[in-house]
Hints:
- This protein is α+β, with helices and mostly antiparallel strands.
- It has 2 domains: 1-31 and 40-100, Molybdopterin biosynthesis moea protein, domain 2; 102-145.
- The protein has helices at 5-8, 79-87, 103-120, 127-144; strands at residues 42-48, 57-58, 62-63, 69-71, 92-98.
- β3 and β4 form a beta hairpin.
- The model is unreliable at 1-34 (pLDDT under 50).
Amino acid sequence: MGFLSRFTGKSDERPSAGSGPSAADPAVTLSGLGDGTPAPAERDVCIPILNLVPGMRLAQSVRRADGAVLLPAGSELGADQLRRLIQRGIECVHVLQRESRDAVRIEHDVAAAAARVAHLFRGDGSAARRNLGAAIAAYRQRAAS
């Protein structure tokens, strides 16, 4: 199926159930993380524009290069909005995606992200290198959680 056929309705194929959230889906409940923090039912995921499907909901506002908001956070993406984002050269957007992992898997993913960054930034280095490593570790852990 071609990319734009997903938006034109000319194909009877539908995106898979795991491809994005739907307003009709029931909330996901997880037991929570080991520190007592409840696990999120949805999480913010950055997805390339060509992998988006209508019905996904924005986790963060989509902005132009000058900072002006094109689409506010919480907007549900429709076919027209996706076409316009592609035309504007937007490469990826943050959407809310149902959390399918259990609390143990989330903890494992966070630990793996921290271990990978620690491996990449192992050894001594400058203060700038340590700061970069800390910033990347925080980003990767947030993305994995």
